[in-house]
Amino acid sequence: MNSTTWGTTNADVRAVTGPSDHVRQASWLPWLTMLVVGGAFYATEHDPLVSLADAFTETAEEMQQRVAGGDTVRRLVYPTMGLFGVACVLTSPWFAGTNERRRIDLLLLTPLVAYLAWCSASVVWSDEPSLTVKRLVVMFCVVAGAAGAASRLRPADLMLVAAVVPTVFLCIGILSELRLGTFRPWAGDYRFSGTLHPNAQGISLACLCLSSAGLIQIHRRWRPLFVGLFLFGFTFVLLTKSRTSAAGLILAVSAYWTITTPLRTKLLLGFVGTWCGVAVLFTALLAGTDVGGSASDAALLGREEQASSLTGRLPIWTELAPHAAARPILGHGYEAFWTAEHITKVSEELHWGIREAHSTFLDAILAVGLVGMSIALVATLVGAWRCQVAYSESGHPLYGMLLAMSVFGLVNACTESAMLVPAFYTFVLGTGLIFTATRSHETAARANAAAESPSGGLALAPERLTVSGNPML
Q1: How far is Cα 401 from Cα 412, in angstroms, rounded to an integer?
Q2: Which residues pair with residue 110 across a beta bridge?
Q3: What confidence tier does 6 reach under pLDDT thresholds 50, 70, 90?
Q4: pTM exceeding 0.90
């Protein structure tokens, strides 16, 4: 792949990273990753007809059947992803027998491995050991795929995968709604779903936005394309009317902007933004606008129903609290709580189909207890911290993107259950954290040398990000 398209030439890479990284530069590998990983998650998580479903979800009976009978597609695609990951690892510099040194970040790697080990150990006390084993197989297939991607993809390649796959999902979703006649953004009660529940779609679109924000810094020639992708994705986040996704994305972008922007720019834009905000507020008050009501409508994204109960979440948490209290330390076993029996009982109590707690924290306690939930939280917080350190050392936007994704994940975890289950967003974040935990020693050394050089720091070349003139992609 030449330097006038999506990255550096092989010669550029060998000059910077040494011959051991030459194996990583197959131009087709990012596209194969998109096909295998994106195809697997589309086949298992997406439904072109979801916009026709009541409340965009399955009925309690359909949920019970899915849990009881399993899913043939899942049995095929997840092992394929796992085999793909193993093949990538075995042909990567990790097993190439080269002299390349890697800096293993035990502070980050330890909680990641500890969480996997705790989930595996939960088979011993699981309410449904067979169900836990099945879910563990899926999880380890996804982990294998993430390890394979981390071992072979360059940072810019991973960011490109993180942008292209959700874009394809979004386009398929728009076409699906157009075909079904459900694409009605002008309607007051409309929520864009595409091929996912609107809340899940919001998470996918957040991945698109955050990866596009990073790619804007890397590819100057293609910057208008990625700016357009960011705005396109953000517009549809608002159309999903997922308040958690919208708030999380705003905070995540703010975190990304905070670590990638010089202090002088932050102060200047902060002053200008404050002044403009005060001016708008003063103008609205003079015009007699109900500022409080307008702000409330904006914050709720036009969804005022059940706002006092967090759109029905408080009754769910109240109903599930006794189940969590019954096994607070160990939990009921990884993915073992939501059996057909529990789905039936909870759904009957709440009068609508429920198979998740609408809180990653509560679902984690139900599954792997306070111990497992705490390990996962520590892994996320340490991951965000180590990504910030990696960004300060290398200046590569990948680490800023991963920090922003961690911030979004923490916000989303408060009211959604998607942050500890196999999905494309968690795949990208997991791949990035594995990459961060196994960074090349030579890459870190070059970044430190750049910081100490008179011309060190970040410089944007026409087609690739450079540190003191050396391509880092």
Answers
A1: 16
A2: none
A3: very low
A4: no
